[in-house]
Write a structure and sequence with these properties.
about 80 residues, about 0% strand
């Protein structure tokens, strides 16, 4: 028998898993075909509450007889108010 030294232990290998497949980058802006629709929806979202409240206040004044709120201007020193 020969007196050869035993072989060195095998090196630990790092097993890597394949990552997710590359995807196309997402667009930063909405597509041009949706811009007009986006503008319309945004206008409705903003205008609808204003229209509802204004309509209710006018209905309340005209048909239910509620008086208009009157705000007194704050008095400023040195200015005489003529009524």
């Amino acid at each position: 028998m020969s007196s050869n030294p035993p072989p060195p232990p095998p090196q630990a290998r790092r097993i890597t898993k394949p990552g997710p497949p590359p995807q196309a980058p997402k667009p930063k802006f909405t597509p041009t075909q949706y811009k007009s629709t986006q503008r319309k929806v945004q206008s409705i979202i903003i205008a609808l509450p204003i229209a509802l409240v204004t309509s209710w206040v006018l209905y309340d004044r005209l048909y239910l007889g509620t008086e208009r709120k009157k705000f007194e201007a704050p008095a400023v020193e040195g200015i005489v108010r003529k009524d």
